[in-house]
TrEMBL record, chains A, B:
The keyword Protease does not apply. This is Glutathione S-transferase family protein. GO terms for molecular function: glutathione transferase activity. Pfam families: GST_C, GST_N_3.
Length: 221, 221
């Protein structure tokens, strides 16, 4: 049986769960408190991060490397378009959400208010939380700009870029940190992706000590 | 003419310069003080980072997305092996050096002592410098481990993973921050990659206010 070592509120784990779900690759989910850096876990991934995918007896890590691997090993349905320019745009946007959005928004809002509590790291830094709350608006504005001329974020087909973005936003949505009402186009896009079968297990996630927002699992939020 | 907006001591710019050089794609290099975030530069790349490649009238950004694009658009010589497992390993290691090595080592050593000075950001944080000096040894140890069973970092052929690693290390080597002598296998690997024609322009880099280490451009260092 394939296995995914993950953490429910890890956006990178969610990105891989969405890719696996879309490709109908079944995995056993194993929750990993990766910040405790157990020796067994470090053997599976010396980088000490989730997700780690065990597939065909091997371990795979880094969410982008895993998704590129899955797309080459199991090509249908594709996570990338066929043309080189379109593939570039998907990768550019994956990096945008994995790096820039995560650093400017998710790491600040989730990092300060959820992971600090989970790890016992002290009180949230209010300046960081404030910066995250400010910067999410810039990102939602950028997504609105993209969605003005495209059905999905990287073009007219759903791709890995949509999963990378939805992975970040769904974690923030769990703790009710997304001001959807001011960004109708992004809300519509999220409602579309939220209704994919691949999203179901994510909407069922529960983290002790953090109750999900009332609308979190609601498809007509 | 193709053009690369870059900064000499940006490892991500160097990674793309190495990929371009290996593929013999000529570009005009335009130095960009990207942290000043001019409006023209943000139009080329809303993420506000270097490198940005202008090619065939379009702009491309994010070093990994650019290199993947170059490899698809100009397949020879390849930056990745042909097999899926091998391609995964290259991408895993690119993420290792671009994310983990950069965050734990380059951002601490270069960020504190070079970029803070360039940007006028105050005195170096000595705890960060100390952590970077400690963690580079762990990374050089990991590279030694990889090179025990491989000729290059990701396997027996030179790939983008080698460029990602050499891009980080060559920046640190400019300011003499690499304890080569204790890591012979890594030193031998670096001497091999340093002698590639693609490396020449990198060895000629000069940053005002920071003189390169004496051995920096020496192929028999």
């Amino acid at each position: 049986m394939n296995r995914l070592y993950h953490y429910p509120l890890s956006p990178f784990s969610r990105k891989v769960r969405l890719a696996l779900g879309e490709k109908r690759i079944e995995v056993e989910l194993v929750e990993e408190r990766y910040w405790e850096q157990g020796i067994e876990f470090l053997r599976r991934n010396p980088a000490g991060q989730v997700p780690v995918l065990r597939m065909n007896g091997r371990h795979y890590c880094d969410s982008q490397a895993i998704c590129e691997y899955l797309d080459e090993a199991v090509p249908t349905p594709p996570l990338f378009p066929r043309d080189t320019e379109g593939r570039y745009e998907v990768r550019r946007l994956c990096a945008w959400f994995d790096d820039k959005f995560h650093r400017e928004v998710t790491a600040k809002l989730m990092g300060e208010r959820v992971f600090k509590k989970l790890r016992g790291g002290g009180v949230p830094d209010s300046a960081a939380v404030k910066a995250g709350s400010r910067d999410i608006k810039t990102h939602l504005g950028y997504m609105t700009f993209l969605l003005e001329s495209r059905r999905w974020l990287a073009g007219n087909d759903m791709t890995l870029a949509d999963f990378a973005a939805a992975a970040q936003l769904s974690c923030l949505d769990y703790v009710s940190d997304v001001p959807w009402d001011k960004y109708e186009a992004v809300k519509d896009w999220y409602a579309k992706i939220k209704s994919r079968p691949a999203f179901r297990s994510i909407l069922a996630d529960q983290v002790p000590g953090f109750r999900p927002a009332v609308h979190y699992a609601d498809l007509d939020f």
